[in-house]
UniProtKB/TrEMBL annotation:
Organism (species): Lichenibacterium ramalinae
Residues shown, of full length: 9 to 240 of 520
Similarity comment: Belongs to the ABC transporter superfamily.
Name under which the protein is recorded: Sugar ABC transporter ATP-binding protein
Boundaries of every ABC transporter domain copy: 4-232
Domain of life: Bacteria
Coiled coil feature spans: none
Length: 232
């Protein structure tokens, strides 16, 4: 079955055509790369699927159903969660507050609920191998790799059926990239569909099952990663 389909989507920003009729088909349960140079339309695709911008033309289907993603809430309601390249965490809130807002506000219910919520976040971080990050720490006090990992962990915390990772390794290196590889593999084993946005073929080889290449706002092809020769 198909998790996601974009059908000849056009997105214009004034006179700029960010997407000029892009199509994409992502199978349920796969890790699908969206690969392209700067300006190819990758972030625009992420924004469309996250409910941040609307297509000028064309349609989006999620698990076979035509959908309108007018706001982030609509995407969340359909199980689509995004870790943005430009980290979307609120700097002067804590890790736990960022994880819990806005779907499950901690303001109602008082101390007991807050403690329970904090424990849930701590447990989630532990399970993801991020137990070294204090859920009570303000985002602004974390280093960039930690912030990128929390951006990703937050999307996972919300139990996505479709997870969008936009350049998720931009601040990561070494062991943190191994961490992400383990996380993506674990989610895949749990049936989650992941869309991995990147401009680095070496990462696509490492993380993904199939890839779609975007160029100048159009898809130029989809292939199995295993079928791509080494010098590509
Ligand atoms: P990528 O993520 O692949 O680098 P983008 O989706 O960010 O590509 O951009 C695709 C094209 O759309 C680029 O030419 C970019 O300059 C343009 N673009 C993106 N966002 C906007 C915007 N808000 N206003 C005007 N042009 C935009
Ligand atoms: P059902 O469970 O009756 O198939 P759902 O609405 O739960 O109905 O699922 C619809 C489609 O989405 C099915 O093809 C199912 O395999 C797929 N699906 C459900 N949950 C997930 C998930 N967590 N990750 C990926 N695909 C899923």
């Amino acid at each position: 079955p198909e998790a996601l389909r974009l059908e000849t989507v056009v997105k214009a920003y004034g006179a700029t055509l960010a997407l000029g009729g892009a199509s994409l088909s992502v199978r349920s349960g796969e890790v699908h790369a969206l690969l392209g140079e700067n300006g190819a339309g990758k972030s625009t695709t992420v924004k469309l699927l996250s409910g941040l911008v609307r297509p000028s033309l064309g349609s989006i289907r999620i698990f076979g159903e035509p959908v309108q993603l007018a706001r982030p809430k609509d995407a969340h309601a359909l199980g689509v969660q995004t870790a943005f390249q430009e980290i979307s965490l609120v700097r002067d809130l804590t890790v736990a507050e960022n994880m819990l807002l806005p779907e499950a506000p901690v303001n109602a219910g008082g101390l007991l609920r807050r403690r329970h919520a904090l424990a849930r976040v701590a447990e989630h971080l532990e399970r993801l191998g991020l137990g070294d990050i204090d859920p009570r720490a303000e985002i602004g006090l974390l280093d960039l790799p930690q912030r990128q990992k929390i951006e990703i962990a937050r999307a996972v915390f919300r139990q996505p059926r479709i997870l969008l990772l936009d350049e998720p390794t931009s601040a990561l290196a070494g062991a943190d990239i191994d961490w992400l590889e383990g996380l993506v593999a674990g989610l895949k084993a749990g049936g989650v569909t992941t869309i991995f946005i990147s401009h680095r073929m070496v990462e696509v080889r490492r993380f993904c099952d199939r890839l779609t290449v975007l160029r100048n706002g159009k898809d130029v092809g989809t292939a199995e990663v295993a079928d791509i020769s080494d010098d590509a």
